[in-house]
Amino acid sequence: MLDKPDSASSNFNGNGHHEAQLPTELINELSSESLTFVESLYTSYLESPASVSQEWQDYFARFPAKVTRSQKLSFGPSFKRHTMFNPPGKQKREGSERQTMKIADRQERLDQLIRNYRVRGHILASLDPLGKQRATPAELMPEFYDFSEKDYDRVFSTSSFGGPSQRTLREMIQWLRNTYCRSIGAQFMHIDSLHVRKWLQTRMESTANFLKFERPEAIRILRRLTDSVVFEEFIQKKYVGLKSFSLEGAESLIPLLDLAVEKAGEQGVDEIVFGMAHRGRLNVLTNIMGKKPREIFREYEDSVPEISVGRGDVKYHLGYSSDWMTESGHNVHLTLCFNPSHLEFVNPVAMGRMRAKQDRWENIDRTKGIVLLIHGDAAFAGEGVVQESLNLSELKGYRTGGTIHVIVNNQIGFTTDPAQSRSSTYATDVAKMLQIPIFHVNGEDPEAVAQVVRLAMDFRKEFHRDVVIDMYCYRRRGHNEGDEPSFTQPQMYNTIAKRPSVRDSFLQRMLERKSVTQEDGDRLREESISHLEAELAAARVENYPHTVELPAGIWAGYRGGDELPADQVDTGVPEENLVNLLLKQAEVPEGFTPHKKIQRLLNIRKEMASGERKLDWGTAEGLAFASLLTEGYRIRVSGQDAQRGTFSHRHSVIHDVKTGKKYTPLKHLVEGQGKFEVVNSPLSEAGVLGFDYGYSLDCPDGLIIWEAQFGDFCNAAQVIIDQFIVSAEDKWQRYSGIVLLLPHGFEGQGPEHSSARYERFLQMAAESNIQIAVPTTPDQFFHLLRRQVIRKWRKPLVVMTPKSLLRHRDAVSSFSSMNSGSFFKVIADPSDIDPSQVKRILLCAGKIYYDLNEHRKQAERDDVAIVRMEQLYPVPTEELEKALAPYPEGTPVYWVQEEPENMGSWRFIYCQFKGNVFGRHPLKGVYRAASASPATGSGRSHQFEQEMLISESFRKEE
């Protein structure tokens, strides 16, 4: 391939490197990759001649001895400048060139084979414990690259591959198959970063992706597998027919988690937050989380039904927390999140919890805590919230430093085969949207599982990114213990019935290697059985203590339950403080150039501070935020366009029009203030609300807000609302102060942008589980937000926020209304009309008040009173009774709403008072006609309907 250089055929380039010149015919044969390859070989040869094959040693030996590492040959652009070179010894040289070209060609074909094993080797991996294999792709067969049998013992350079620098083709293919086609299939070549791919290649290829157990490790894995298998067998025998969602067939999950926790401890991780569905949950609770089996057995016994009337959850949905002391002496706190049957919706909740913890620790590099999520294969491929959660992983406002995803791949979903449940090859293919590796592993090979766990944990530590472990296994029983799986998968379950447990197959393998003895296996099994028998006996004692979990740790001092009089707190702020805080929000750094309209807004804020203008909604919100921050509270606001605000009322982040730099005034109020974070979320509702709800679970002393772009967008997060926000206290005794800001109001903007559908929240309102408010003035919103944080009563808060009222001339407030007092749940009629002359009382909530009040003024109707319910739930009974007390008994109360009769508050209000308010006032309603859709799409029709609504509200009594 290369002729021996002489004085006529070589020179030194400007860098002092020797340039070898090649004839035209050779240049035409070589690709740029081949030239680079030859140069790399020569560099290796200069370092160590033995690092390249004998053929290349013989060839490179012909170059001048004076060429050193500092003057290495460059096979570069100079080739094209010397294509006419024709040195002596042409015939000998041409033979040498042909031989060299053959060597380079063979090497290039091998490099292509190596690359395709890295890309496609996972297809040949032995992943399925049930033995199903896929056809070998042509590009993984040596014949595809024109290799024949005589090439198998030919020596090639393998210095770019892990392990020895020279190997025969036969050895190389075996090494490739060991690395990429044994019990581990790796997908990583979709990652753009060469550095990341090289890191993964080196880690896998240097060891052939194999971790061999020594006796201590073998005993540990065997113990974990034994505990896992025996627990499932014990449950099946003692509680025949009762649901447990057995882990049988996937018992390797327990040693996998064990190794993950141990590795986390070695890496200095202080806490792991787990999220998982119900499959195998009881096993994880017992063997990883440390929940005593007696507690689980007691839940099975269910012998004291009166303590769970109307509350609690099934045993395989419950969460748990514990501390784990690793063998390295590091304590790791473990938290398993509670989980509803909506399988994957716990994912963003767990991520939000970890983000809150990291923020509290001020762990900016996100290294002290890890989220570990356990998925089912069908759910991972099928649930959209999975994609939403993956998308959050690398966003600044939601990053946690990388989540470990473990898919317990049963190869079946309920009764559905993969061919019917996904369009992709793997259940994990959605994860290829990220720049992360996906490791498929045979769950019946614990050594491979161990290798993958350590590799995954090290990858997460090195690159702070997510990583996926797809553990292939099977489900020995049906979806639950009452199912008969052979109804729908007879062949699969015929195969499963003949298989030994993963524990028994692992024990046999270790026995063959003499890593453990049969006595070890028998002893571990007997110990596990004896332990469970003792726990069962303890669970069945008559005086078994029933304990009530009280808020502890960061939640100590907070409470749920019913609202008490003591929960009414003064939320006022001195006017001097408010003025200073408003001026701070009107400042920008010197040399900073805001948009001209933003500058006008800043000037208006200054006018408000000086008393020249009343305070609008956005200003009141900013003052609530600023006052809380100066008192040391943390605030997090997230949602679509949350920084600016959908309706341009917030502008919490200001952009320099010249430089693009950003400035957030609320971060620059006083020294030592609370942390303020406002995040523009991705176009996602369920994932983001789940994340922020999770954040609120570990931040009781902060104001955590999710804002919908329009109120109705909350319907895309309904699972988070139904299964977590409104029911978590009742099901799991978990409190949250999450705030939902839902823009609401009928303004002729069509069905989707009128209603936040708050009838749904009212329908779910019971046992003081949530707060639902419809404030009508800026000062009310100010007090409402401050009340949410200052008082210790922790309940989710749903606020129907305005759109047109953001700039309504009458929806304004003064500093004086914010100086003292608190949020008014009910606002009595502020007019000076004589109560004794009132013929009807209009009771309403939200924006409709302004339309009603305007009409009353214009019509000069002194016989109509207007009372506002600013809080709909918990129903402010005392406050409402006080507001209605001045009016004569028998005066009718009309509930007036913009929404159709079957939406909004009407049916809730009617149900509360049964047609008569406090036995003094007949109750009637004014509303749009019942409708399948919230509102008309016609602006003129809306106005026509609105006029009819107002007219009906003021119709004189007959």
From TrEMBL:
Residue ranges occupied by any Transketolase-like pyrimidine-binding domain in the UniProt entry: 615-808
Gene Ontology molecular functions: oxoglutarate dehydrogenase (succinyl-transferring) activity; thiamine pyrophosphate binding
GO biological process, one term: glycolytic process
Known EC number: 1.2.4.2
Region (Disordered): 78-99
SMART domains: Transket_pyr
Pfam families on file: 2-oxogl_dehyd_N, E1_dh, OxoGdeHyase_C, Transket_pyr
Domain of life of the native organism: Bacteria
Catalytic activity as recorded in UniProt: N(6)-[(R)-lipoyl]-L-lysyl-[protein] + 2-oxoglutarate + H(+) = N(6)-[(R)-S(8)-succinyldihydrolipoyl]-L-lysyl-[protein] + CO2
Alphabetical list of InterPro entries matching this protein: 2-oxogl_dehyd_N, 2oxoglutarate_DH_E1, DH_E1, KGD_C_sf, ODO-1/KGD_C, THDP-binding, Transketolase-like_Pyr-bd
Cofactor(s), by name: thiamine diphosphate
A GO CC term attached to the entry: cytosol
Alphabetized UniProt keyword annotations: Glycolysis, Oxidoreductase, Thiamine pyrophosphate
PANTHER family linked to this entry: 2-OXOADIPATE DEHYDROGENASE COMPLEX COMPONENT E1 (PTHR23152:SF4), 2-OXOGLUTARATE DEHYDROGENASE (PTHR23152)
NCBIfam families, alphabetized: 2oxo_dh_E1 (TIGR00239), PRK09404.1 (NF006914), PRK12270.1 (NF008907)
Stated role: E1 component of the 2-oxoglutarate dehydrogenase (OGDH) complex which catalyzes the decarboxylation of 2-oxoglutarate, the first step in the conversion of 2-oxoglutarate to succinyl-CoA and CO(2).
Protein family per UniProt: Belongs to the alpha-ketoglutarate dehydrogenase family.
Assembly information from the UniProt record: Homodimer. Part of the 2-oxoglutarate dehydrogenase (OGDH) complex composed of E1 (2-oxoglutarate dehydrogenase), E2 (dihydrolipoamide succinyltransferase) and E3 (dihydrolipoamide dehydrogenase); the complex contains multiple copies of the three enzymatic components (E1, E2 and E3).
Protein name, as recorded: 2-oxoglutarate dehydrogenase E1 component
Record organism: Gimesia aquarii
Gene: sucA
